[in-house]
Amino acid sequence: MPVHVDANGTREDNRGNAKAPRPNPLPELAEQPRECIHIGLVNNMAAAAFPATERQFVSLLESASEGIPIRLSLYTLSGIPRAEIVGKQTGSRYANVETLWDTQLDGLIITGREPLTPDLRDECYWESFTQVLEWARENTHSTVWSCLAAHAAILHMDGIRRRRSDDKHFGIFDCGRASHHALTAGLASRYSIPHSRWNGVAEEDLTAGGYTVLGRTADAGVDTFIKDEESLFVFFQGHPEYESDTLLREYRRDVGRYLRHEAENYPLLPRNYFDAKTEDGLKALREEAMEHRGEGFVPGVAAALESIKIKNTWHGTAALLYKNWLEIIYARKTSSVQGSQAHVA
Q1: Which residue has the higher pLDDT, 7 or 95?
Q2: 58-76 residue pLDDT tens
Q3: At 158, which CATH number?
Q4: What is the pLDDT of residues 98-148, one digit of tens each?
Q5: Which of 151, 169, 239, 250 is catalytic?
Q6: 238 and 281 in one domain?
């Protein structure tokens, strides 16, 4: 079912202060057989990945909705320079998260952002991020924290620090179910999810903090975990929302950083992602690029990667995870409405 995206850019007064979002009644939703779920997406990605991240989540929610009408509102965090992330294609549709305080949402998705400081608490958006977290605790039925947002959330909530690995967890990782929960209902005992991260959190730290691990990988640690309080908080260290070529584009970016002397090491190939013939070609290209390191070699690498086709092996799993998430929200919303009606009666 199509996702209805609000055109909810904010009006600003003469002082530049954000006011309430422009209303978008979406009358067609009233004709749907099931009550609409209102989801917010807080997109924290930098300019290069900003539109792609929105597209990925909209597409995934459409694949997962299966008869549940979804209204999606788009937000950005305070503290991040708005001009850095919002261009012509997004400015009319994104509101500042400060407009959330007087908004009713059923669920929320918070994306991560490549950190600029060693301590996440020193990031320019930290205060805004923690305000959203505390709001979500009391005002959503469930919230998804994606990758770096998951690390920031558990640091704020329980002081759990992420740990840096020697190598980047990069590629398609084989995961196994660790606990039974409605979020993973119908999921195979083993499934594949993309990961792209240097850092992770220790399972023993999570269990000591009251979190439940739902899935883990054999060699990259925890995949998915939850904490169920007033709102069900869902944490993904991986990226089920990734499109087929997202890891390819990240690999190309990292190769470019190496060639421009912005990174010390040539990036590792993403695991379980390319076919054997493609991997052989990229290994040969790596040797050539290291021998002729320099910005002039960037176009050659980009051209070599342009024609590669990727088979998506995780979309079915991703759609099922988010379908279950939407069903959890729908059930909690229905129960809350019925409880309120019984109280009034």
Answers
A1: 95
A2: 999 999 998 899 999 999 9
A3: 3.40.50.880
A4: 999 999 999 999 999 888 899 999 999 999 999 999 999 999 999 999 999
A5: 239
A6: no
Which stretches of the chain are assigned E, i.e. beta strand? Answer: 3-5, 10-12, 18-21, 37-42, 70-76, 94-96, 107-110, 142-146, 163-177, 190-200, 212-217, 221-228, 232-236
Q: In the annotation, is 239 catalytic?
A: yes
Q: Is the domain of 173 the same as that of 255?
A: no
Supply the pTM of this predicted model.
Answer: 0.89
> Taking 80 as the threshold, does the pLDDT of residue 88 lie above it?
no
The number of C-alpha atoms within 13 Å of 18 and in the hemisphere containing its C-beta is: 20
Asked about 147 being catalytic, the answer comes back as yes
Specify the amino acid at residue 107.
G
191 and 92 together in one domain: yes
195 part of the active site: no
Q: Which domain holds residue 129?
A: 3-243+312-344
- Check whether residue 187 and residue 47 sit in a common domain: yes
Say whether 184 sits in a helix, a strand or coil.
helix
Catalytic residue among 98, 123, 141, 147: 147
